[in-house]
Amino acid sequence: MMRYMLPLGIFIVLVAFLAVGLNLNPREVPSPLVGKPAPAFELPQLHAPEAKFAPKDMQGKVWLLNVWASWCVSCRQEHPILVELAKSGIVPIYGLNYKDPRDDALKWLKQFGDPYVLSIADVEGRVGIDYGVYGVPETYVIDKAGVIRYKQIGPVTQDVLEKTILPLVAELNK
Amino acid sequence: MVNPVLAKEAAPLAQDEAVEKRMVTISVELRCLVCQNESLAASRADLAQDLRREIREQIGQGKSDKEILDFMVGRYGDFVRYRPPLKGTTMLLWFGPFLLLVAGVIGLVLYLRRRGKHIVEARLSAEEQKKAEALLKLGESENRP
User: Fold this and answer.
1) What pTM, to 2 d.p., does this model score?
2) Cα separation of A127 and A96, whole Å?
3) Which one of B33, B73, B78 has the shortest CB-CB distance to A134?
4) Pairing of strands A93-98, A119-122
5) Which CATH number fits domain A35-173: 3.20.20.70, 3.40.50.300, 2.60.120.10, 3.40.30.10?
6) Does the beta-carbon distance from B51 to A129 stay under 8 Å?
7) Residue B52's domain is classified under what CATH number?
């Protein structure tokens, strides 16, 4: 009996490790930026290029920074959720239009709706690098002091929104 | 038909060969986060090209290799490095394989010892001995040219 128990035990441990390991998403790399101040930048706005936007303009407010692009397929997946969220008015969403030609970006917003208070154009992707963006869409929750409190890599799903982002926003707004 | 908008132009070669060389030695140490099993040096992803540009520029600004690596780790985390630093959270990563090796060797030694005790030398009975010799003789005579 014992001689079967040991291999069986090892097998069960292996299966447990694989079950956990294979269910993790290798694309979700924990961001070192969570808990740190949102990197400063100043970029032209998408709709009004002569006007600038900087994160410090948002001091004292809890806000979302959503990185999007017209060439990004999974952005379409999350877009209706962002549009709904914008309608609810719970939290302002600012868009970082990442490495996108301006015309394409404007056309995309016209076609799918614009949930953003305003979008900022990061044509060369330099601000994206400062924010550690590597897979659009990404969404940052930034608190009143300008500190990044959460980073969503990949599309915001209804589940993530209800279980993680909205409770966090409510807590930060207290 | 080639769409001029979609066609991507080749990334420009750096004019300075020394900068290019240093850029490559730094970027082979870094993981491309878009295609995670490729290094930043090898990847053709857009982000990799941007990051290589960033490295070139920082070399131009006279930054050291360590400063450039720190810049990347500060934004993308330890995962961006193929050789993560040795610290509390990476102990298991660095020493886990050796732990497994030691466990394997201990297991093997224990197993061989236990098996050694069970092996009993087999002896032929007188009758079997005769039979074996007869067979050997038969084989010898048959193999002779």
Assistant:
1) 0.76
2) 9
3) B33
4) parallel
5) 3.40.30.10
6) yes
7) 1.10.8.640
